[in-house]
Amino acid sequence: MASVTPASERAATTTEFEASADPIGLFGRWFDEAKVSETELPEAVALATSGGDALPDVRMVLMKSFDERGFVFYTNLGSQKALELGQNSRAALCFHWKSLTRQVRVQGIVEEVSKEEADAYFATRSKQSQIGAWASKQSHPLEGRFDLETQVVKYTAKYALKKVDRPPFWSGYRVVPLRIEFWRQGAFRLHERRVFMRDDARQPGWKCKRLYP
Ligand SMILES: Cc1cc2nc3c(=O)[nH]c(=O)nc-3n(C[C@H](O)[C@H](O)[C@H](O)COP(=O)(O)O)c2cc1C
């Protein structure tokens, strides 16, 4: 059965939803609510890319941070998504928080995070995950599971007694937003949509408009 946000809750958030001129602040408040109400991975987000062949490709990633500069995820720089982003730096994200019946869509330009930022995040991962990053040639053909496990054993031995360095082929991307759309479910499919737009990420301020559901 489809759930609709209760009237009392809607009243409390309506003013903010309608009045906010700051999409990053609004995103932050929605994300805080999602962290409370989603049972699994509120930071999970669909990432859409398209490379030189213009064929859209989409997969889930985890958004590890966000701020005024954009939304950051981490991955293997030899992966299919990285290949596509190298050919076309335009990408889109789509968050869906089922428990809140809300969606946020982002379109923007992707750039690599700094080495320092990637190092700092890599250092927070568990040692097994750090070794996993070394062991996986993400998106490349794998003959059998044994080959992956052999790589894990190799890097586990290599780093048994020392700190795991960030692999040079593993880093983060920031989606610098040019358009952010907030959607929340309304009764009888009369949903509410607000979209924030800007032509250039270097300029402050956003234009905002509402869209029919
Ligand atoms: C919930 C979820 C979160 C994921 N998070 C990441 C992630 O943060 N980074 C990543 O590289 N892959 C992540 N994956 C795996 C990707 O969806 C994908 O399989 C992988 O990155 C290879 O994609 P590609 O071949 O298009 O590069 C996640 C998958 C799921 C289901």
For this entry, give a set of tags.
alpha+beta, 9 strands, nine-stranded antiparallel beta sheet, Pnp Oxidase, Chain A, 6 helices, binds flavin mononucleotide, 213 residues
CATH architecture grouping of the largest domain: Roll
List all distinct small molecules, including ions and cofactors, that are bound in this structure: flavin mononucleotide
**SSE topology string:** HHEEEEHEEHHHEEE
In whole angstroms, how far apart are the ends?
20 Å
What does this structure look like?
The longest helix is centred in the N-terminal third of the chain and has 15 residues, at 23-37. This protein has 6 helices and 9 strands. The protein has helices spanning 7-19, 23-37, 80-87, 115-122, 127-135, 145-158; strands at 44-50, 56-62, 65-67, 70-76, 90-97, 102-112, 170-184, 192-197, 207-211. The chain has 2 domains: 7-122 and 168-211, Electron Transport, Fmn-binding Protein, Chain A (Pnp Oxidase, Chain A), CATH 2.30.110.10; 124-165, no CATH class. The protein is elongated. It is 31% helix and 32% strand. The chain has 213 residues and is an alpha+beta fold. Strands 1, 2, 3, 4, 5, 6, 7, 8 and 9 form a 9-stranded antiparallel β-sheet that branches. The relative contact order is 0.17. The model has no long low-confidence stretch (mean pLDDT 93). Flavin mononucleotide is lined by residues 41, 44, 57, 59-62, 73-76, 79-81, 138-139. Flavin mononucleotide (FMN) binds next to strand 2, strand 4 and helix 3.
